[in-house]
Amino acid sequence: MTLSPSVSTTQTWIWQGFPITYQAQGDRGPAVVLVHGFGASFGHWRKNIPVLAETCRVFALDLIGFGGSAKPAPGPLKPGEQAEYTFETWGQQIADFCKEIVGEPAFLVGNSVGCIAVMQAAVDRPEIAHRVALINCSLRLLHDRRRATQPWFKRVGAPILQRILKASWIGEAFFKQVAQPATVRKILLKAYGRSDAVTDELIDLLMLPAKDAGAAAVFVAFTGYSQGPLPEDLLEVLPCPAIILWGDKDPWEPIDLGRDLANFPQVQKFIPLEGVGHCPQDEAPELVNPILLDWIHAAASD
Description:
By secondary structure, the protein is α/β, with parallel strands linked by helices. The chain has helices at 49-52, 87-102, 113-124, 152-165, 168-178, 181-191, 200-207, 215-223, 231-237, 255-258, 280-283, 285-300; strands spanning 9-15, 18-25, 31-35, 57-61, 73-74, 82-83, 106-111, 129-135, 242-247, 267-273.
């Protein structure tokens, strides 16, 4: 595949009978695959793709259920009909994308739950992953195995809310309340360390997919997903080296808890980012891009 180094092209790939959107830019250098977090899309990497693409072949894809990709009804995977919104599904999607579109082992970069997805892909299909970078990895604090460590109101409240949202009309109504520009802005202002990074462009980027048919069902399915792997489960068996970047102002995934992940032997570096919240690649690309480029090219030259 030959790509212009200066222009991101949005393309569609058919996976399991579903249209999947992705962007590609760059015509030389190591392959890099960027994977967004919950509720986001490849647009969350818009400040990173052009810089990385100067010396890399860069791909950013929308996980099934998010962005411009298909949002089929939740359920056991049936090609063209429904999909299970789990890390096993997303890991399979990423691995197949690397095989069919990228065509070579890639540097996998994730943000938030995207970190779990890229690690799942690397664990399931080691041949597709050269290295992994985790940016503010989701700690999955509402996971069933985490509940004992949470305050009582979270231990009790989260399961109750999950059960209530499973009623389709309640879940739809709740999603409509959350998927409002003012609400999204308020959430981002809490999650971002730099308020000036919460722009109208960002709000529009996140709001557009929320209007798609099936978006509410995906939201409810994932908010009710308290099983699957924890990051430490995957780091323990990760078949390739990893680095971790962490915004120290993240209110959702506290850096003090994140530092524990650096104890796994596969983690080569843990890099704190001062004054930055949950999405450093968008908040502080001037910090993140040089770190990623140095990491990619140092590893590629080994």
